[in-house]
Amino acid sequence: MLPSVFGESLFDDWFDFPFRGFESDMDHKLYGKHAARMMKTDLKEHDDGYELSVDLPGFKKEQIELQLQNGYLTITASKGLEEEGKDKKGKIVHQERFSGSMSRSFFIGEHLTEEDVKAKFENGVLTLDFPKKEPKKLPEHKTIQIQG
After folding, report:
1. Share above pLDDT 90 across residues of the chain, in percent, rounded to a whole number
2. Domains of the chain, earliest start first
């Protein structure tokens, strides 16, 4: 068993060393090694629509932006840390919280509009409801009569 501090192996960085650089380090700088665990989502299907739940712990409603463009719903969350490091009584020994932004996109259909998507944010969970809507059906194949 390897020793660990704060749930991470002390040897993670050492054993990952030769493989570093192949993936983007942006996520590592922003949210540490566990960036893949950020913005976890669940999608539920109901008879008349879908419910998308997104975990955004530590964010406020004002720090979340939703955009719908070309059928893609994009969720962007951004925040900065307050000046917590300037504590008069001590200094930060270990810090895992970072400031910055993250976003994630989901294709929900080109036939939906902003009015179709209902959003609610409670207790760090963003819940989006949107209906099952069939795209407008094109008329059946009809022949066009040529005049003359």
Report:
1. 37
2. 1-36 (no CATH), 38-80+98-132 (2.60.40.790)
